[in-house]
Predict the 3D structure of the following.
Amino acid sequence: MESTPSFEERIVSQQRAGDGAYLAAQWDRYSAKHFLQLCGLVSALATADDAPASGTRRKVRVLDYGCSSGAVFRSLEYHLGDRIDFSFVGIDVDRRALGFILAKMPGVELYEADAIRLSELLDETLITADIAVVFQCCYALAGQDTDQILKGLSRVAPTVVVADHIDNCFGVESSVMTLRDAADRVYEATCHPFAHLLAEAGYTNVCVLPATPWKGLTGFIVASRNPLPPCTQLEEHIAEAAQPEFAEAANKRHAIRKAAPAAAPVNSVSPSIDEALDEIAARRCRTVSVYGDRPFVEAFRTAVNATMADVDTVWFSGSFADVEHGARVLDRTVLSSECVVVGGPLARLYHPRLLRLMARTGTVRPVFPVAIRFSRGSRRTTGTRSTNDGCSCSRGKPWR
């Protein structure tokens, strides 16, 4: 009996060569009609419950399986972010895509997984979402893989939205069908029995909504363990989101926001590399972990070599592009040094990630953030405290 290939062996064929232009093209399609229709669906599902308190936005956590460039996240945030406070989780096997999203939206929680690995990932890691999305993904997968994905997502989210071919939705098994797109072009595609698969995954309510046909998508299937809004209401939201006024309203909001002058954060400071070096020298640290992007690390190392040649540095980054140039992915080894410097344009995001790692491992190290207008308030993170000498330390129970 042949053994199942390892995860690394399985995803080799999913890694695309080149400069990532395909991701940039996908990212820029965030206002395409089907993305807008998805926004309409998410808006309808998110507002089905009682309205939040006045002056607050409703919090919604969205997971996208097969997230690719993150265009779904961009579309939701751009078109609905004024009324919904989103947090995002992305799962994909394309490592270049995960690096692309990390550079564009560093706050997204990202995981590597295919259909087989998804179940293992969920056994190891607590992942939750309010709504799971599978956008134009299943048509390229075998029926068994689609079944595994939907069963995995049922462990994560009470509601799932599948954007795919709905032509065999109420069938009993996957089959290849001949279809026509919006331009009347004939093509063949694998169509899955989504209603059957979602029922087996534990979703008790299903609504099937046709959409303008396109290769990879002829409609939406919304399934939930909770009561769904009437299908007619979902159809109305889809139709409204597809109208030009929906995208135009979002464009106007963002144009106003860009025109408004950016205010400096209250009680903000701008720690410099020199200030960080003064702190390192005062503590007589000889090993420093540097957590930031390549330009910042190069500037920091240049300053270190000029004034503190006996100090060794180790580079960590959240960017896959930086990893290709010698950076290490953030893990507990960042705390092997005597202190940590966090800097660069993503310091505000890297800093809390580092503090969460400290909380999980129970290890305390002085942390010196270097960034323009770094808010003192952002130094306070759940499970952490800021000492009055400017460095952040970790305490409290572990959390993700």
Summary: The chain has 14 helices and 18 strands.
